[in-house]
């Protein structure tokens, strides 16, 4: 059940995967795709390297396998690209995604598809540059259900009958005590509305200037 749950869970953009989900994708990507692609790539390199013959009258190649025609190994290199692409498509959150991209670039280079290999390596450099790293959204530890419960708990609960009876009894006891001591409760004072102020009559000079 744990493996199935890890497989089918969806992830929001930029959200960090859970530990179980991460472990599932790492395991599956490594042994189903990356391992097979890596073994096939190493065998292809060994095969190409065995076809190369050093010419000691010229400058020796640093990578002898890259100087050999890849015509006989194109099918294997295509298979490396296919397996790596499947690992990326199905298990992108795994730690082997960058390794699979690198293998795709290496296979393209060995096929003498230099322009495509160059664009692949440029993309890898830009995407996995630590300076351009996108912030990861941490998964909320508490579910929405838990938060809703917390909000409801914060709201004031209605008083029970028992508490209401206690409060009423307390008020009656206070009133009885006040009557016994001869203390009368202070009457409520009503606030009188202020009447609008009457305007002062205009002086004769003011009336003349106003008429003029």
What can you see in these coordinates?
- This protein has helices at residues 2-8, 19-51, 74-90, 97-110, 114-127, 144-154, 161-181, 204-211.
- The chain is mostly helical and 212 residues long.
- It has a domain at 20-51 and 68-130.
- Helix 3 packs antiparallel against helix 4.
Describe this structure in a few short sentences.
The protein is mainly α and 212 residues long. It has a domain at 20-51 and 68-130.
Features:
212 residues, mainly alpha, 8 helices, 0% strand, rod-shaped, disordered N terminus
Number of strands: 0
The portion of residues forming beta strands comes to under 5%
The biggest beta sheet reads: none
Distance between the termini: 98 Å
Given the helix and strand composition, which structural class is it? mainly alpha
Low-confidence stretches: 1-9, 202-209
Counting H and I runs of at least 4 residues, what is the number of helices? 8
Helicity, as a percent range: 55-70%
Shape: rod-shaped
Helix/strand order: HHHHHHHH
Average pLDDT for all residues: 78
**C-alpha Rg, in Å?**
42 Å
